[in-house]
## 1
Amino acid sequence: MQATVQPFFDPVTWTWTYVVHAGSGTACAIVDPVLDYDPKSGRTRTDSAQQVVDYVRAQSLSVKWILETHAHADHLSAAIWLRDQLGGRIGIGNRIPGVQGVFKQIFHLEPEFATDGSQFDHLFADDEAFAIGDLQARVLSVPGHTPACVAYQVGDAVFVGDTLFPPDVGTARCDFPGGSAQTLYRSVRKLLALPGATRLFVCHDYPPTDRAPRCETSVAEQRAHNIHIHEGITEDAFVAMRTKRDAGLQMPTLILPAIQVNIRAGHMPPPEANGVSYLKIPINAL
Ligand SMILES: [Fe+2]
């Protein structure tokens, strides 16, 4: 069955959110939803997520899943807010406990913070099959950008998370804790072994000024044209390029707030005695 994919672009964090379904009145999944966050004021807004709610309601869709490809470092997740509005179960890859453990230490989180992934409704194993109504879906483990990254295949559409970007932008960075350029190379080769016509939907685009952001590419296009990892690029060459490039990248603007919220599936930290939630800034720790 052909999946219908509705993209939503957040120009603040360059993130693509998706709703995937089989037509009006059917079941759907939401992939990588964005919670708007202003780092200057510490205020959240739900303008981006509301667009998803409006679409789901206009199409009379029933939300079965809210899928995270990984614990994002560039935007906060709206998964919890959307679950409250629309229902559904929040899923992420089953290696997320490792990521939670690393960042529990970095942020010196409260002792009660569980590092077993229990903040999420479901932890997906590699190759796990699941259903979105009549749409058949499966999970592809694609570590490298983070050790817990997964992609979601729904029919002929694959939501690749932070692995591949559009061909002229290349690939995701691999310098976060637990990241590995060598591992990302192998994950991308796994994606590019899918049939050439497979539609790939990226989590981000950082377009040059002469084109609009795009969300969809294909296995064949990536094999032929991805500037970092097209067919013929060896693992050693990719790792050398990626390592050099990552050494010159700044941290994402929202990495500190984003990680603290996203390893909690989109929950804010527990409020303090005055009822306010606080995010931490570790000094010289990241
Ligand atoms: Fe990411």
## 2
Amino acid sequence: MRSINFALALFLLVSGCTRGSSGNTTPTAADAKKFMDDVNDAEFKLALEAGQAVWVSETYITDDTSALSARANQRLIDQTARFAKEAVRFDGVNVAPDIRRELNLLKVSLVMAAPSNPAEAEELTKIAANLDATYGKGKWCEAPNKPESCLDIDKVTDIMRDSQDEKRLRQVWEGWHTISPPMRKDYSRFVELSNKGAKELGFADSGVMWRSKYDMSPEDFSKEVDRLWTQVRPLYLKLHAYVRMKLREKYGDVVPANGPLPAHLLGNIWAQDWTNIYPIVKPANADKGYDLTSILKSRKTSAVDMVKTGERFYTSLGFAPLPQSFWQRSMLVRPRDRDVVCHASAWDIDNVEDLRVKMCIQPTDEDFNTIHHELGHNFYQRAYKDQPMIFRDSANDGFHEAIGDTIALSVTPEYLVKIGLLDKAPDASRDIGLLLHKALEKIAFLPFGLLIDQWRWKVFSGEIKPEDYNKAWWDLRLKYQGVAPVTPRGEEFFDPGAKYHVPGNVPYTRYFLADILQFQFHRGLSQTAGCTSILNRCSIYQSMEAGKKLNDMLSSGLSKPWPEALEKIAGTKQMDAGAILDYFKPLDAWLDEQIKGKPVGW
Ligand SMILES: [Zn+2]
């Protein structure tokens, strides 16, 4: 699953800070430098305290550990908010470029800005917590009087993955979407108040504030995202047409011959990842020819062995091994005696080298990939440890999620042969199975990764009014994904609220960017590694040259604009979805064959 690293998990608030100007004197460049030094020191200490507290609360859930971590987190958030507001007083001061960048980043580090009116700030904090809790407690109960019939998101996810009963899938899909209508009123008030706070920080609205983090104007960033989508859309349309054809063979007329895909039949409650329907759509004679899950299971591979294998990939590129403390302090299997948050995540508790992974590892293909993903966060975190605290982050938020996935793209059959997990790599005729499986994850995700914030940016700007929330949501899902509900979804529903990141107020475009960037990184590093085979068979394993380039980019953290970081690996300052098209070229040709004479689009 898509996980978050700790540094990115902090959802910052501006509290109602009453501190005014700094007195009568105009601040100087030296004052600005001193201010940022103090900020970096204070953030370092507060982040350590919060990191330790949150780690304990997630690996040992009790009322007490939850309270302690909430308190430590709040201290960090409040202090950061005060700093962000204070930074404004250096706006007109002529300071060194590095300090200017630090000040700017401090101001845009907020995901949610509260108005300075204390009553409104308190109302916003409460609403945000309520929205988050409403989602977290969300359950659909088939028989309201029987608690054992209630389905939480985990159970809903299992059914969407495993069931092929159209009626049951529809029932569960509609059931889960009953959790969100109560959020609607809160959400529109949340938009009003958070916009008010954003305006006080100098942004037109919260959506503009979110888009101000990308080293370009918010307008240019919107255009950039559109441009990337235009590049990859033709391939998505082919995948969509092929999947529609196969689903129609399976489910009949509920799947239209030339219309949108029914939202409940794609193996995932949000239709954001279609890998679970692979058994329905898999090619007849091009299965990938091996099953990593069975290999890992038959060898009784332990969780530690799987992580060691992942670590060896990174050390083969020239990275230093993980510190001893990683092995002592990580949580790699589900403990038998207590409740924990199993959702995989990578941590850097002290923002130096106290790296950890928290995960409940099973010997499966999926977890094998997830380990490479999480370790990507860890090696990134350690690479930028010598930067000033505020630069200890990825070049943009898409980069952090992309690194581990880039490495996972190098887990090719040839790599598995090299490390002794597979005897012989299947020949290229089996690639279609591998590529289709990957496309159901990565290509299917792109329009979804894009549209969540298309909806939110318009909601924040006022272009989408509260009375049209649901209509606008489904208009966008139809426009980008070609996905539609099978029954009318009027304004009595609030379907965006059934996706965590909306009530949780987590920006989402980073996942779209990560999906694009990882293929661009993979192509750039594969070229550096001297790979001459087809891109989906390239692995950068054991390439010190590729490792050197990667480390060069990772170690610059957030200190330079992201196009400069990108250039170090990709040789260009532009994001380019063309690498995705290169990677999936064989599949693209195969899809053309499959959908010949069939309708494309909706
Ligand atoms: Zn992640």
## 3
Amino acid sequence: MQKIKQSHMNQPKITNYAPLLVAPAQVLRGENILSQLGDAISPLARRCAITNAKLGKRPLVVGGNKTLEIIHPYLEQIVKKYELKTTQASYLPDCTESSLSRLKELAASHQADLIIGVGGGKALDTAKLLAHQCQLPIVTIPTSGATCSAWTALSNIYSEASAFQYDVALNRCPDLLILDYSLVRTAPQRTLVAGIGDAIAKWYEASVSSGNSTATLTIAAVQQARVLRDILFQKAATALENNQSDDWREVVDATVLLAGVIGGIGGANCRTVAAHAVHNGLTHIPSAHQALHGEKVAYGILVQLRLEEMLQGNQLAVSARKQLLEFYTSIGLPKTLEDLGLGNISLCQLRQSAEVACQANSDIHRLPFNVSPEQLMAAMVSTKELSDSLSAKAIPES
Ligand SMILES: [Zn+2]
């Protein structure tokens, strides 16, 4: 008996581990670092094993109309020096299947051998997925601090009407990320505020989906998410006051880089929960499109905490929500549907977004309790509600 047990214990447990896609192969950051674009992309050039032709000389640059204009002078400078043949294309109207098939045709006709994505999250998601589908190297150049898309091996697909459809796991993180603070500084401040909302969600979602994990890398990712939250609590307000300050650069590093690190280390084990599910539901309301991704996610965190409070009686969620309400007030993140510009939506639209958020495959079901669309609707309209007894109390430590 003893012997059988022993041999059973010695048998290796067979587990299929997903590949680790932790970080871009190279990250360059600094003021005006974009002027080094040519030197930075030239190592990506290599010779084709079959024809011995030089690869990496025919970049296809994908971005929004405005960002393509911004990058144009930089590209002009390097085109001659590095003998590049570049072409540019807009990802608009959105990161959709039709945009991707149009860009794939362009990549083929241009004989593109490198994709450069420049812009916000949707432009970068499109460029990354295009490179993935064409099996080409990818360079990401974020133009705002609104998301960590420049870092991650993930792209979100939207419908023609900009409603969230599904996400696609890519086979690697970008080959090169260029974070130019001078470029990010030209973006409206609202984009960095939204990025703070998206980044802070990592803690509230990862601690619910993976807080009890015993896996080394998942524990590390959840702890990094807590560190990220604390950095943002400490530095967000001062960063936003002065975009020339060290705090501003640290906050950009937090939203663009550290948020990506957490996704990279945590991978599929550190997934989004209700905050992003609420965001996904809201994208099905046309008037929600003027609110940025991170703004909808930030509101979604409050909805998630409200659900934990209403359905689980979780008092920690109450104090966390109170702390966030104060934080949001100090930096200008939306606390209610009204703040998102959705004060006049119909009951039917609210129900539709709640139903999308509660679909069977939604990440909202990573919460440790069931949520119905009716319960979600109740939480969505009461994100600011605080009982008198609580609002009178000092904020407990979370
Ligand atoms: Zn997000």
## 4
Amino acid sequence: MGYEMAARLAKGGCDVAVWNRTKAKADPLARHGARVVNELSDLASRDIVFCMVSTWDDVKEVVGKLLSGSSKPKMVVECSSISLEGSAELRELLKQKGIEYLAAPVSGNAKVIKAGKLTFVVSGPRAAYDKAKPYLDMMGTGSSYVGEGELARIAKICHNVMLGVVIQCLSEITILAQKTGMRRHAFLDFLNKSVMGSMFTRYKTPALVNLDFKVTFTPHLLRKDLDLGLDAGRELEVPMPLASVTRDLLQTMIGHGMTEQDFATLILMQAKASGIDLKPENVEVGDGLSS
Ligand SMILES: NC(=O)c1ccc[n+]([C@@H]2O[C@H](COP(=O)([O-])OP(=O)(O)OC[C@H]3O[C@@H](n4cnc5c(N)ncnc54)[C@H](OP(=O)(O)O)[C@@H]3O)[C@@H](O)[C@H]2O)c1
């Protein structure tokens, strides 16, 4: 995610410096004009630092290293999917150092960013948002400002609960359709053209039809977000029955060791549970992203 975000900023003409733990993965960004640095503290003197790692523990670690020297950036925009509590802790830490902070998690995957369709949901001081907005816009189709504090975190968690529930639903109905004798691509073609079709159902169609499960989002990361949603539901006393069942189905998949491929492998679990040995259909289907 971070790679494609940085690539869009660099291609858009911004003065971009990048750090990634495994430097070799970031090195190709140099051909778009980005400067790939060796140390996180090399980013501390930038105006805005965008952070895109994995969990709150990772964010804490990288921000600690970022601020380990004497320089500090004017603003940190944190885009990973992390908990409200982690985000609030980060806000407090940055406030004490006089650094502006926006919580700005995203919707999309690396391919979505490449297609220019990434979106952000943002919270924090309005004035900081106004400053960051041109860069957020450059990375995709825009951002939604939802208010102060950590509100963006809960919006993102709600979004990803839907991601989990929808992929499980898609898997169930696609296998049901197949078991009646339909080809998966034919069924999904109908669904994608209908009012129920969406950018998501369209871009997951090649995976569901041809079983290409090159990872866009890992089962572990999806489980993290379902857990964050369920935690929030418990705290706020909101029942979340669909999220709860989906979390258990995902856990079953993880328990079977299916952790390294895309979360859309939920369809393989569904097929197995339905007595179907799933085979790729090897049919060319669009993903709704490539033009
Ligand atoms: N993929 C999606 O579809 C998607 C969509 C929306 C939001 N998100 C969220 O966006 C974030 C990134 O997702 P992703 O798919 O890009 O994950 P990813 O492919 O696993 O990449 C994680 C990145 O974080 C770095 N990282 C992780 N832990 C670190 C640590 N302790 N110190 C330094 N660097 C660390 C990794 O560095 P290395 O390269 O060295 O491993 C890598 O650059 C996650 O919070 C995820 O939930 C993902």
